[in-house]
Amino acid sequence: MPVLICPVCGAENPISGEKCLKCDATLDGVTPLDAPVEGLSGDESLGSPTKDEQDLPGLLQSLKDEGDIGEVEESLQNGLASNDDLSDIFAEKEASDEEVVPDWLERIRQRAKEEPDAIGDVTQKISAALETIADDKDENKHDDFQSWIENIRKPGSAHSEDQPANELKKENLPSRLSDEDWLMRIRKAEGKLPEGPDPTEQKGNSLLQWLIALEEGRETPSKLGDETSAADEEGDEFSSPITSGDYQVVNEQTQKIATPFKDVLDIDRLMVDISDEEQEQVNLFETVVTQENQAGQQHRPLRKIKHWIWRLVISLILISGLTASLLVWDNADISGAFLSPQNAAFLSWSEARQPGGSLLFIVDFQPGYFSEIMQISKPILGMMLEKDMEISLLSTTPSGELLFENLLAESTGEELAFTDLGYLPMSSLAAYGIANHVENELLQTPESPIVLPAEGYDGILLLSDQAEDVQIWVEQLTALMPETQVLLLLTSQAGPLSLPYWESGQVDGMISGVVEAAAFESAVSGQTVSPVGMRAYQLGSGLMVLMLLLGLTLKNRPDKDDIGEGAQ
Amino acid sequence: MNLSDLAWGIIGLILTVMVLSYAIGDNFLFRLASHIFIGLTAGYFLVVIIHQIVWPYWVTPLAVGSWGQRAWMIIPSALVLLLIISQFQKFSKLGIIPVSFLIGVTTAIVIGGAVFGTLIPQISTIVERFEPSAWAAAPEQTGFLVLDAVVMLVGVIGVLSFFYFGRRKIEFPDDDQTKRPRFFEGLGKIGQVFIGVTLGAIFAGIFSSTLWALIDRLSFASDLIKGLFGGT
C-alpha cells in the first residue's frame, strides 16, 4: 500500500494526506512509496526516526516529549508483562493515554500477539532505555552525555564489559543505522541520488583533485555521504572520497579525541562541502606556499652570506679605524667646547663647596660604562678631594663598591678612604629609604652600614647610566628632601631624558657624556684638555653618520633577488 | 707590568676578543664568554647579597639586637619563610603574600614619586615659563624666553595630542571612522616632530655611550699589546 513519507520527520502518512500527521509539515510534491511492511523490522514501522533516536536516552526523551510513552509502554507490557518497573514508572501515563491508539501501534500490538519475537528489537531498546532512566533517577548521574557513556560501560547496565565495543555500538544504536537509511529512501524516490563509479575506487586521488572534481560537478557532497555509508557497510571505518591512506594521520589524531565516545558515536562520515570561492583560495594558498618554500630554499643561503659579509666589513672598518686613531693620531683638542648651563651650574656648585663638607655618591651604573663615568667624574672628584670633603658611598649595583674604589684610584692616583653605606637593591626603595633618613632605631645595629649624618649632606651626586634610574632617584629625593642639593653625573645615553629635571630646577647641576665632561674639565683647569680616545670618538661618530646616510640612500633599493622572485 | 697584571690583562684581552666576535654573528666564543660573565656575576651577586644585606640587616639584629629589634625582624622573617616554602608546589600560593607586599610597597613609592617628583614639578615649570616677571628680569632675552615658553607649550600639547586616540564624530556615512578629530590630528603632527627629535637624541646618546665603551676596550687592548712588545 503506497504511503507518503514526510520529508521532515520521515513519518508515514496516508496517500491522501496533505500534511504530516506527526509534524504537520506539508506533503506537497512528495512521491508516494510502498509501505515497507514485510521488509522492515518492527521498529522501523514506528514512524519517522528523529536524530535523537540514534541513542537510547534520546529515543526515550523523544517518546516522552511526543506523548507516546504510554503507548510504547503499553506495547511493552504485551512483550514484557513481568517487568514491574515499567508499570511503576509509567503508571500515571497509562490511565490517561489508553483511549487513543494510533494505527501503527495497533499493528505492532497485533504482530506482537501473533509473533512474540516481532517486537524484540523494540523491547530490547526500550528495556535498556528504561534501565538508564531508572539509574538516572537513583543516582542522578546522567546530567551530561559523558556520564551517560560511563553508565553504559558500567557492569550491570544495559551492556556488560565483556561485550566488544563494536557490538555495543551496534546494539545501542537503532538498527536502521546499519540498514538502508530512511533519508536515502526519500532521495532515491525523488531521483536525487546520483549514480556513478565509487570514488573510493579512485586510489591515489589528492584532496585538491577531489575538490576540483567537486567544483566541476563530477562529485557532489550528497554522493559523498552515500559513499561513506557504503564504505561503512564494508567495515572501512574512515572511508571517504579520499583514499584511506590520506586520512591515516587524521584517523590517529581523531581517535585520541573521540576515544570516550567511540562506543556510541559514528565519526566515520567525513563530508567536505566547499564553494567555488573556497576552491580558488585553496589553489592560491597552495601556489603561494609552494613558491615561497622554493624561493626561500634557493635564496636563503645567499642572503645569509651577504648579511654576514656586510657585518664583517662594517665591523672591520669600525674597529680598524678606531684602533688606528688610538695608535697613530694625537688626541683631539676640545678646549673650545661650549659649556652648557647645567655644566656651568655644576661648576658654580663645586666652587662654592666649603672644605670639610660631606658628600654622598650614589653609584648606579653598570661596569661596562666605567670608562665614560670615569671621564665624567674625574674633574669633580679631584675638586672635592682637594677641599677635603668627607665622601660616603651608596651603591645600587652589586659591584658599586669596587667601581667606586677604582674610580677614586683612577681619578686621584691614590687610594682614598670613604664611608661605604653598603648595597641597596632596587633604586626606588633605596631612594625612598635615603630620602626618609632611615633613622629608625629599631633598624639600626652596631653593624648596620647605613648611618646617615644627622645634619644631612651638602650634596648628593648620582652616577648613573640609565634615565629611568635617574628619574626614580630625583623623584624621591626632590619630593622628600627638597632642601638637599642633587647633582647628576651621567652617561650620554641617560642625558637627554634627564634634562627636564634640570629645566624644572629639581637638579642643581648636571654633566652627561664625555664631551660635556671635557668642556667642564677644561673650564675647571683653564687649560687645553685632550682626553685619551677623543679622536677615536670623533671618528666613530663620523663613521656612524656615514653609515646612517648610506642606509637612508640604499633603503628603498630593492634587492635583485627580490626582483627575480617577483618576476617569477 | 707585573706578572699578575699581565695574566689578567691577557685574560681580559681574550674575553674582549671573544665578545667582539659577535660582530660576525652568534658563535661559540661569544656564547662561552657570555656564560662566563653570567656565572661570575651570579656568584659575585650572591656573595654581595649575603655580606651586605642578609648579614647586617637580618642575621645581626636577630643575633645581637635588642628584643625590640628581634621582634621587628619577625615580619621580614615571616615573609622570607613564606617565599621559601612557596617553592614547594603544595604551598605555592603562599608566595603571593610576600610578592604582593613587595609589589604594593614599590608601586606606592613609585606612584607617589611620579606625582610629586615629576608631574607636578614639570607642569609648574611650563606654567612658570609664561610668568611676565621672569621675562622682565632679563629684558635683553625676553624674545628668546617667550619663544622658549611657546615652543615648550606647543611641544607638550602636540605630544599629548599625538597620544590621543579618540575617534572623529561620524557626520556622514562615508566618513573615515579610523581618523582622529582634525584638531588633534593637526597637533599630533606637530607632536610627531618633537617625538622624533627626542628619539633621535636618545639614539645618539646610546650610540655615544656604547662607542665610548668600545673605544675603552680597544684602548685597553692596544695598550696591552704595546706593553707586551716593548712599547710604553
What can be said about this structure in brief?
The complex is a heterodimer of chains A (568) and B (232). By secondary structure, chain A is α/β, with parallel strands linked by helices.
Secondary structure elements and pairings:
The complex is a heterodimer of chains A (568) and B (232).
Chain A: E1 2-5, E2 12-13, E3 33-34, H1 56-66, H2 69-79, H3 84-89, H4 91-97, H5 103-114, H6 120-139, H7 145-153, H8 165-172, H9 182-190, H10 207-215, H11 221-233, H12 248-258, H13 276-327, H14 341-351, E4 358-364, H15 370-386, E5 390-395, H16 400-412, E6 419-423, H17 427-435, E7 459-464, H18 467-480, E8 486-490, H19 495-503, E9 509-512, H20 513-525, H21 534-554, H22 560-567
Parallel strand pairs in A: 4-5, 4-7, 5-6, 7-8, 8-9
Antiparallel strand pairs in A: 1-2, 1-3
Helix pairs in contact in A: 1-6, 2-4, 2-5, 10-13, 13-21, 15-16, 15-20, 17-18, 18-19
Chain B: H1 3-20, H2 28-64, H3 67-72, H4 74-85, H5 96-128, H6 132-137, H7 142-162, H8 182-228
Helix pairs in contact in B: 1-2, 1-8, 4-5, 7-8
Number of strands of chain B: 0
Mean of residue pLDDT values of chain B = 87
The major beta sheet of chain A can be summarized as: 6 strands, parallel
Which stretches of chain A are poorly predicted, pLDDT < 50 over at least 5 residues? Answer: 37-54, 79-83, 156-179, 197-204, 222-247, 253-265, 563-568
Strand-residue proportion of chain A: 5-15%
Characterize the overall form of chain A.
elongated
Number of domains of chain A: 4
Number of helices of chain A: 22
Largest sheet of chain B: none
The total count of helices of chain B amounts to 8
Give the spatial strand order of the biggest sheet of chain A: 6-5-4-7-8-9
Radius of gyration of chain B: 29 Å
Mean pLDDT of chain A: 69
Helix content of chain A: 40-55%
Low-confidence stretches of chain B: none
CATH architecture of the largest domain in chain A: 3-Layer(aba) Sandwich
- Classify the secondary structure makeup of chain A into a structural class: alpha/beta
